[in-house]
Protein 1
Amino acid sequence: MKIAPIPAALSLAALTFFAAPLAKSPGNGGGHGISAQQRGSDPLHTLDLTWDRWLDHDEIGERMRLLERTWPKFLTLSSMGDSYGGRELWVMTINNPDTGPELNKAGMYIEADVHGNEVQGGEVCLYTIWYLMENYDRIPEIKRLVDERVFYIVPTINPDGRDFFLDNTGSGGRTGHVPVDSDGDGLFDEDGPDDLNGNGVIEQIRKYVPGEGTHRLNPHDPRIMEAVAPWEKGDWVLLGSEGLDNDGDGRVNEDPPGGYDGNRNYGADWQPEYVQGGAMDYPFQLPESRATEAFFSAHPNIAGLQTYHNAAGMILRPPGSAWEGDFPASDIRVYDEIGEFGERILPWFNYHITWQGLYTIHGGSTDWANDGHGAVAFLNELWNEGQYFQSPLLTSQQQGTNPPLGGDLSRFFFDDFLEFGRNFVDWAPFDHPQYGEVEMGGWNKFGSRINPRFMSMEVFHRNMAFTLYHADQMPLMRMGASRVESLGGDMYRVQVDIVNERLIPTITARAMSTRAVRPDLLLAEGDVEIVAAGWVQDRNRPGKTQMIDQKKLDRVLVRSGHPGRTTRTVEYLVRGSGNLEVTYSTVKGGTVSTTVRVR
Ligand SMILES: [Ca+2]
Ligand SMILES: [Ca+2]
Ligand SMILES: [Ca+2]
Ligand SMILES: [Ca+2]
Ligand SMILES: [Zn+2]
């Protein structure tokens, strides 16, 4: 068949004609243009991403670059430094340049994955960047948050551990990968687990020893191993996780890669190894914790920290250890209000002080952020196994004596019928070079701690909402009304209201005591002479003004900062007329000014 060539002009017109109905410009009210909005469905996303895969470090980098390319005005991708293994510590800065420079806005720092196996926090971080950008023009509250604040988002602070977890069997992904001699034999990382049957999973080993064992098989489900009472004998023993004695020292898997805890290496209540296991030899020894410290020092505007972990369903606040004592009452009120808000929007989560709710942590990042940088810091444990079991019938069948789905049975029920058995490797015979005839099997790396992929959106969104609420409570300064009163002669009384609209003070009580944050500065500049200055006790009724007893009244240090949700009124007694510019400068809540005409 022969087709006549179409003149160029005509083909372009034809193309335009057919393309027009597909155009997705909003408000396209033309008769034949069917826009997504007119169909009544959601508007199309600018960037369509899926959230049901766990991304490794390279993929996170690709996604961060894609986000930055899509929203270049707001997003700046940079690296805080390199991990021990040479992977970038990506940080995405979200700032609207039209509403001011980054250091003049309270900063919310959000990170994940200090324990590399706790992968879902990385995706919460990516989801947060995407959600804020995607909805900036759609949801006024999101626009306000982005316009008022700056966000620093670090999807993985331990990329070596994350990649080791995702690209390998998963065993040993918690730690970073600086070599450590875990068993003190002078060799480093010489004996980790081995995937002997090559199925990609480090399994458990069990051996059949009739009448001589410590365990028996659950009568309802032989996949489940149960310990027998001390006075009983079972038919099975458990021989630990899959591996060999690689260095011939008589122990199996005793010195895997790394072997420390990145969240014990921060310079706040740091303790040596014999007090705090996993702490390393000195604070900030690890390149990752050192990079975080350098980043915070360069960004004193950071007023909030969230670090995502993954097991327990908890909202944790510092202090990490009891011997530090609790914080001053005004700081506790701030933590309690945010933490209890979190309990309401995060089902299965409880709000705790770290050492009470979880365990003692010396040298953790929330203590360091709170004590060393004056940032209100929370640690969310993103997954609670209770989230598996939300059916009232199943929940009731887990209770009582000899329940039909008690103990581990319900966990298997969930995996069998909701995950289609994806996460359990059935026991199978194996001829082990050291243990002889055994069976190997057990949960794979996604079998616990990490939410099922199909539940990701809810976990990500709810935790993001909690962290955004926290961000919204960071200090935000504003100048209020001003009043001038002539006192006769050339004397005037000038009052200016200074407002912190949000819950968190510009300087926490703890940060004032550690002197972690520069005092607020109350500056006055202009044509008039300041004779005296003071704080008005109560601007709604006559009363005393608390005189400011500092020599330089044009540059007053406010060491206690500005409390949350409070308006304070400064009063100047001035001689002469003209302009008086009053500026209130804070490190964490921005700098604001107003000019008063004195006459
Ligand atoms: Ca060793
Ligand atoms: Ca295996
Ligand atoms: Ca060994
Ligand atoms: Ca050894
Ligand atoms: Zn953790």
Protein 2
Amino acid sequence: MMAKILKPNHYLEIGTGYGDTFNLVCKYAEFLTGIDRVKRSKVNSRFNVMLYKGDSDSFFKTNKSRYDMIFIDGDHRFDQVKRDVVNALSVLNYDGVIFVHDTFPKGEIYKIDDKCSDSWKVPAWIRSNPFVDVMDVKKHPGLTIIKHKEARK
Ligand SMILES: C[S@@+](CC[C@H](N)C(=O)[O-])C[C@H]1O[C@@H](n2cnc3c(N)ncnc32)[C@H](O)[C@@H]1O
């Protein structure tokens, strides 16, 4: 698990769901922020956790924090994921890493809105940004990893 290696100071997850990932990351991050439209009691809410109930667009309008690791796993429609990536990049520390989930679904049946939707468009789109380095895990449902280019340090 990447959080175990990265040990982020501040972790942000867009779309915490039932906390399957968020609760695991709790062991390795100093502070955590979770965003979801729906509040679910299974999501850990310890002293070092801030849970925001609402959509990611409204979260970023008031957010003042910066993050070391950001997991984007909310609304998988391409237009929304694009906004989440742009917003995430604007609050990502220089050494930070963004993970975008569901970018390599294994078939058409997964390219529907309540599954991976059209997140599969993210890898090609993000590569048109010259200021980032990108890596993909092309195993269903897929993951795209984004960081600021080293040269910007
Ligand atoms: C696939 S689930 C998340 C799973 C979770 N990340 C995990 O690893 O277990 C997607 C979640 O995103 C939430 N969601 C959908 N659109 C959102 C948005 N625009 N902003 C915030 N949360 C959103 C949904 O309510 C749902 O709980």
